[in-house]
Amino acid sequence: MGKVTLDRDFWTRSFAVTSGDLDRVHASLKRMGKPQTVMTLLAEVVQHKLEASSLDISAEQRTASLAAAHRLLEQENVQVYRQSGDYGVGQRLLVAWTDASGKWHYGAGKVVQRRPASEPHYRWVLTLQFPDGSNRSYIAGADLRHPNARHWTLFSVAAEIETSPHAMVDEVLRLYGSDLLPHLLGRLDADDRFVLWAGYCWLSEALPALPHHALDRAARFLWKQGQPVTLDKLLTHLRQPTDEPHRWALNAALARDPRFAPSGPEMWPAWAAPLPENLLRTAEGELLDLEMPARKLWIQIRELLHQPPPKEWLDNPNVLHFGGRWLPKKLLMPLEEKHLRQVQQFLSQSTGGVSDVDILREVFGITTDDDDYDRWRFTLSYLLHQRADELGVEFVGSGQRWSWASRSATPLKPERHRRRRGTERLEIPPAGSSRPLSEQGRDEAVLEMPSGKVDPEWKPTAETWEYVLTYYDWDHGILPYNHETRTIIPPLAAGQQRAELRFVAEQMDGGPFPVHLCTDGRTAWLQSEQLKEFFVTHLVPGARVYVDRTETMLLYKIRYRQTRPLPRRVLFFTDGRTRPEIREVEISCEVDEDMLLAEGRFTNVEALSRLDLINRRTAPKVLARVFELVGEKDLTRGTYHANVTHTLIAGCGPRG
Fold first, then answer.
1. What is the DSSP letter of 403?
2. pLDDT in tens, 126-152
3. What per-residue confidence (pLDDT) applies to 418?
4. pLDDT by residue (tens digit) across 260-272?
5. Coil, helix or strand for 566?
6. Which of 57, 178, 54 lies closest to 107, judged by CA?
7. Is residue 79 classed as helix, strand or coil in its secondary structure?
8. CB burial readout 157-184, b (16+ within 10 A) else e
9. Interstrand relation of 498-504 and 555-560 (parallel, antiparallel or unpaired)
């Protein structure tokens, strides 16, 4: 190649891809008539530099080349790999390499591992992972002054060297390819004559023109698909050939248009188009434009309101959501401040919860005959929810039945346990003071409480729920809300404190009565004064009850199985007394014998009075006494054993 005067300083500091280099690349591509790899073109540029008798590059050309390289590295968020550099996990490095056949490649790899090296002339071994999933290892932190570094770095030729041009070009690329690449890539990317794709370069003039509005049609097609589509499928939809020139033309056009996003390997990409905020895609793939006139939009969307919305609608700021329902913001009805105040006054004068259907009819005269009825329903509840604190109202609906109540009309809760005098210093609170024992249950299934996460698409999975009343349930009109209850009764919405349901019992006069699903933020339960009346009048602790779903939303039937009346002596607590008493009652309902507080099982309960005041203040002594009274003694070990049902009498009674 003659006398070479290009040393390391030239390749790392003075190298530039000039306008003349770009002209030669253009001529070469035109002569070859097909795409070429960028590394092939870089090799031609390097060869020209080595063969040139003079490299009088102007300062303007060097500045343009350096600026293009910096711009490319910044856009791609990548650094040029150098052996002496120090890189951390997560950084992206631009590298060039040859495969087993000697073919050159380049890529941006992410550092996924950095481990200390055992060699004295470099500190680290890096593992780089490339977009195609492959890994390659490189050294870092190299000491270029170390003698062992000479055979793999510091290329410098200042004398006549007898070697082939191809070998000399390969040597330059091996040592400095990563430094030279950004110059060529940056200049090619900024020049409209060239098109880059997956490591290849081609001429823009060789690509066929796409039909007018082709990209608009492609965008609409991708919006409907909702998933990435290959170039060939897009070309077929556009009725274009799927040959290489058309694939290049479409890929280049999609890459320049911000509406599109690539997916998959760069060589075989698929393309997607994220939906603009003004468009909604239905489950059937139809598009709804939220910018169309409200009346036209309502005609298109009204049949969809009773279906769960696609998940991607949840993040669209133009779609409002509440209670499992949704409505485009544009379709809200004009409820003004004075209208909301009318609703507030109406609820304050009502007893219990009032459905949105009744509110619309009684306050505004709007019924199901109105064309915009569903819009009014959503608007009413959505605005009440937004202004709930200010208006003093709360949502007490459940599932698809929406009801509202004045917060001043909060129903009375059943009396909770209060500490007896003399128990203030007990190390544990009396049973039931923070959580009804009915919610604790007698087996693992009942103990497992429902999570606080509410499924907006809740659906019943059972028709009947079976449950055995504890003394606490019976005495307070309480039922637990656990996973078994959830199979027939929908959960509270996020942040909701209570919901109003309706129960009906054949033995209760007056038709359906209200039952409230309440929560204290940790657990939920069902409560009602009418439930208490039903339990006390017709049942006993330990009775088995059944709650059935009905065809009417949020209306449930509670029942029990009647039996032949049978007198039994059962333990009860009496108001004003600290000791239980045994009463004879006539039981005519199905009971669970393990939960029935029959006399024969608790003959020593009255001995609770033998604990003096001092001992009653000590929780371990109280518990020990309970086990002595209701447990079985192990004579060999001197200990007492009792199961859960036997110890329930210590906590499920109002004075236990």
1. E
2. 999 998 889 999 999 988 777 766 555
3. 46
4. 999 888 888 899 9
5. strand
6. 178
7. strand
8. beeeeeeeeeebbbebbebbbbbbbbbb
9. parallel
